[in-house]
Design a protein that fits this description.
With 397 residues, this protein is an alpha/beta fold. The chain has two domains: 212 residues, no CATH class; 153 residues, Nutrient germinant receptor protein C, domain 3 (GMP Synthetase, Chain A, domain 3), CATH 3.30.300.210. It is built from twelve helices and 13 strands. Strands 1, 2, 3, 4, 5, 6, 7, 8 and 9 form a nine-stranded mixed beta sheet that branches. A four-stranded mixed beta sheet has the order 10-11-12-13. Helix 10 packs across helix 11. The longest helix has 28 residues. It is globular. About 2% of the residues have low confidence.
């Protein structure tokens, strides 16, 4: 009898515990935020854009073509904090905002130059926000301006911009995707500064017609912002930034165009992949000595040179490719150190390998970096010349 009583008590207790879900909300009562743009209105006020999915315009089994209007709506809120700005949008939105599906965070240069960690604080504290959300810096544009620019192949601007970032990260190697959590972690590490990819809208004032042309106006992923601590201090244009993704071992694929040896008007194209970089940092007489050892593979994916691809010719091309990468590394390192920025995380490498040395030099590290002895060693292996060995030749008059 007592056993049955215990069983009944367990069942009743379980019923009370499992009878409902705490904080449960119906999906049709939520506004799904997929993108956020943060601008500075003035010194004390943030202007935040929330890109929300328009559910009635999304394709569904009952409406495969979707609606006739845009599938997103941009709401703008202002406040002294990001949270206040978000709550102020409740005056405009008939549903409660849900932040679990944020795909992209765009921050203006003005907000990034002010204090990046202040902007990101709410993402760390709010359990509903995603720390894995990628970040972009709006270059020469407001974040609101970027989120209002449409792309023809993807009608949701924040999703389109994220896909562009992923696409160029995978194929070109001049930019890389970095999340809120990775940014905070990098800034928090001793002897390490962060860089964040940028996005730019080519036209300051645009309208719907600009997006309906055969060659439409679209935001471009281009360049990176360099940070000293939590403040943006410099902008670097594209091409110069490949050394940064390579140093972080984030480069998946890239392309080098090398002048033909006996024909300076034409080029050979090498697709580089499987690139790995190792950094060694030591101190000698108070001067940092930094060595970057780079290994990788390449394929000749286009040859415009009127020559036979002999072993010697390929070896010469390989040496030229290595020299290009070495120069890019040195130039980017010098650009960063002139701004007292350690985006190569050389200080962090010293901290990990020799904490006592780091403790000794950390106070003046950014100044010491400007005097650093830097060596870059590149070793490339050409794996293939494609489906043919030599360039096609004209054999008759």
């Amino acid at each position: 009898m007592r056993k049955h009583i215990y069983q009944i008590m367990i069942i009743l207790t379980s019923t009370l515990i499992l009878s409902g879900c705490f904080g449960y909300k119906e999906m049709n009562n939520l506004a799904f935020v997929i993108g956020i743009g943060i601008d500075k209105k003035d010194e004390a006020t943030y202007r935040v854009t929330f890109q929300v999915v328009h559910p009635n315009e999304i394709p569904s089994p009952s409406n495969p073509a979707g609606g006739q209007s845009l599938p997103i709506i941009n709401y703008v809120g202002e406040g002294h904090t990001i949270s206040e700005a978000a709550r102020n949008t409740s005056k405009q939105i008939s549903r409660q905002s849900y932040y679990g599906h944020i795909g992209l965070l765009i921050i203006s240069e003005e907000a990034a130059k002010d204090n990046l960690l202040k902007v990101l604080d709410v993402f760390e504290r709010d359990a509903k926000a995603r720390l894995g959300t990628p970040i972009l810096i709006a270059h020469k544009s407001s974040a609101n301006h970027v989120l209002g620019a449409l792309s023809p192949l993807q009608k949701m601007p924040s999703i389109a911009d994220l896909e562009k970032l992923e696409n160029t990260t995978e194929l070109l190697g001049e930019n890389m995707k970095i999340s809120v959590n990775e940014v905070i972690q990098t800034i928090s590490n001793p002897g390490s500064d962060v860089f964040i990819s940028g996005i730019h809208v080519p036209k300051k004032d645009y309208d719907v017609k600009d997006f309906e042309k055969p060659q439409p106006l679209v935001p471009n992923i281009s360049g990176v912002a360099l940070f000293r601590g939590d403040k943006m201090v410099h902008w670097v244009e594209a091409r110069k930034t490949r050394a940064l993704t390579l140093a972080k071992n984030k480069l998946q694929l890239t392309n080098l165009s090398i002048k033909c040896i006996n024909d300076k008007k034409n080029y050979i194209s090498i697709a580089l992949f499987d690139m790995k970089t190792k950094q060694d940092v030591t101190m000698k007489n108070g001067i940092p000595h930094i060595t970057f050892s780079i290994k990788g593979k390449g394929d000749l994916d286009e040859v415009m040179c009127d020559t036979k691809l002999t072993k010697d010719y390929i070896n010469q091309t390989k040496r030229m490719a290595s020299e290009i990468l070495e120069k890019e590394f040195i130039d980017m390192f010098n650009t960063a150190t002139k701004k007292k920025v350690d985006v190569f995380s050389s200080g962090y490498e010293l901290y990990k390998d020799n904490p006592n040395e780091w403790k000794r030099y950390k106070k003046d590290w950014r100044i010491l970096l400007r005097e650093a002895e830097v060596e870059v060693n590149v070793k490339l292996n050409i794996m293939s010349s494609g489906m043919r060995s030599d360039t096609a030749q004209i054999t008759h008059d």
